[in-house]
Design goal:
homodimer; mainly alpha; DNA-binding; DNA-binding (chains A, B)
DNA sequence: CCTTGCCCTCGAGTATACTCTAGCGTTTAG
DNA sequence: CTAAACGCTAGAGTATACTCGAGGGCAAGG
């Protein structure tokens, strides 16, 4: 079974434009062409594209995905290199997840303030403190102009 | 206590360029200027910039951060709007985290294959299957050219 | 045969978020 | 007082990742 670029676009939720762009960027060196020059995708191509999407979904740069694919094309001698690349990337994703969690806690704190029954009073007080701090430093505040 | 743009850059790990860019984009309408036109930051300004960094660290677009800040400047009447904006953003971050976790599992699977003592054999077999699939579909494989 | 739909490439255009340069005013240490 | 350090704006430049239009070839149904 083989697939046209349109079919692959539907299966992967990538646009045809994006697939061609990825090919141009060297992400799809494994895709064959038919006699007319049309890209012809096999199931194993789809599998590799799935991997590419995995890396893209975890925010890997195209440059690095290209490197990974290049390793895959180069054969078993690059297994160590692939492992190192994926390990480094995994660590970056874990760091990103930790960062997201930390920042989400602060957003939750804000949400809690806004949901407090006295939110209006709290905000009003904050605004007065801000203005007081500005005037204490001889600064014009957006509020008093 | 007030701070120069350089001091704020050091405290926030944003570059001076970025701070000025954020100001130009309407993210820092609360920052006052001194007689010479220099930006002069107060502690409460730093606190708001910290919030901006939180939103940025969770990949909020500048356009949406600007909206949030505009709500903050507009006073207590916008508390509901702020809550909705942050809730929607929080949901997006949670979705992103889920996506990261899912994709990380597939990366872990790849890593497991590469760490298998027979990784070389597995990869070799895969490559042969890929070539077989290509030739079965009358396609030239990168490998046989 | 020929129209409609799909495919191709090349190159330009868009969006986002910075990053930097040029030209000029301000502040401060010696 | 003056040179170095710092600040300002406007606008150009960079990086990344698409997204699209123009011009043209290929394939299948009527």
């Amino acid at each position: 079974m083989t697939y046209s670029i349109k079919e692959v676009a539907e299966k992967t939720n990538l646009s045809i434009y994006t697939l061609r762009y990825y090919d141009k960027q060297g992400l799809l060196p494994f895709v064959s062409r038919n006699a007319a020059g049309y890209r012809t995708f096999t199931d194993s191509d789809l599998s590799l594209i799935h991997t590419i999407c995995c890396l893209k979904n975890t925010d890997m740069k195209i440059k690095d995905i290209r490197q990974y694919i290049a390793y895959c094309m180069a054969g078993p001698d690059t297994i160590e290199a692939r492992k190192q690349l994926l390990r480094r990337h995994k660590q970056e994703v874990l760091d990103k997840q930790r960062k997201l969690t930390e920042n989400l806690q602060e957003i939750d704190y804000k949400l809690a303030v806004y949901s407090n029954p006295h939110a209006r009073d709290i905000i009003d007080q904050e605004r007065q403190a801000v203005t007081a701090e500005k005037t204490a430093n001889q600064l014009a505040s957006w509020a008093n102009q």
